[in-house]
Amino acid sequence: MKVRSNAPSLKGRIADAAPERFFWDRAARLCVNRLARGTGLGGRSAELAGRSVVVATSSQLTTALALIELDGVARRLTILPPDTAADHLGALIAGAEADAVVIDQDTPDHAAFDLPVRVVCAPAVVPAEQPSLPHVPTEWVLLTSGTSGVPKMAVHSLASLIAPIGAGQRRDGAVVWGTFYDIRRYGGLQIFLRAIVGGASLVLSSAGETVADHLARLGRCGVTHLSGTPSHWRRALMSPEIGKISPRYVRLSGEIADQAILDSLRAMFPEAGIGHAYASTEAGVAFEVDDGLAGFPADLLQHDRDGVALKLVDDALRIRSPRTAERYLGRQQAGLRDGDGFVDTGDMVERRGDRYGFVGRRGGIINVGGLKIHPEEIEAVINRHPQVRMSQVRPKQSPVTGAIVIADVVLKADCARTGGEQQQIKNGILQLCRDALPRHKVPAAISIVSALDVGATGKLARRYG
Length: 465
What we know:
The chain is an alpha/beta fold. The chain has ten helices and 27 strands. The chain folds into two domains: 10-351, ANL, N-terminal domain (Rossmann fold, 3-Layer(aba) Sandwich); 374-448, GMP Synthetase, Chain A, domain 3 (2-Layer Sandwich).
């Protein structure tokens, strides 16, 4: 299902915006409105007109400037996340049929970037004459995550990307969005576009910045709306600097938002709206839930909303939507959708009363003696323990059952640290699991750890399945 639109380009939206809005990263504060009569590309945007451009900048700020300046100018924009493997660059650039690249001063040099046109984006906007260029419908190419080998390349239009964003947002400059995400991935790009469409300012995360430093900077910039994965938020809640922010709206996406994290955020920000969105790079934003409860109402499966339809096939969620990517580059469109136009998300759900709850990924199942276990289901139970901040369940090889499940647990900052007190907490966690789960899902062992590995996408790093 393709979305066609004559809506203005991103730069056109900047030109129409009032009052001033700003982008911040760790090193700079930039008035975005200046792009209406200026450039971050050294006045070379005309050289990129009609081309397939790879955006390979090292910072999110230069990425943002390049995307604004080139939407409606370039034929195709392929956005490379910062963790793109160097040995995948050649295949990705060939797949994008790229004939131009935008870099910045810190982009690592690579032979794959030796393209006919090479433009450097600066983290600043300078006055420049605005060339009269024909408007072209730009394809936005995003790389998928969570796959082995070369990532898939999902093709969106600006219309499909901004379709979930309400057109009636206030444009009074009072909104300051922030995100723990990187805007070079779908979740972060959605927040970048919300800032542009809504006339808001935006606080960008910066590579190498600690959670505490980022929270302090969000507070100084007056963030009002803040987005991240549940893992992002759990790490933020562990920092004393969380008290530096007082957002009006808190948004979660990218992972299962269990009741424990929703309740923790409600306790931390009692006056804020708390919402969680379900989205993927291919399917786009399917729905948002703002009632403070985990999962989603069952009636979402009964009625289409804003052109979005949901269905279950073998308990896996499928989505048909005008927000869906048009196709994969180098692949037939049929590889993205089923025969009825639905995208298979691979996320498994189960009915619980009048709601559906997410139980995990189809590809992340742990097999214990022939019984299938979703680690996220066990984590949701463990996270309900009042002294647990976050957890991760993983398999351990067993000569008897092939695998057993074990859990790594991070405690809240004010919890007891002596050996005896920790053992009491472990016992309490195990009892909670025994009361809520079948025997084969109860962890065989629990370890108290200081931190869990969160990947570049903001999700718990799972190295199995």
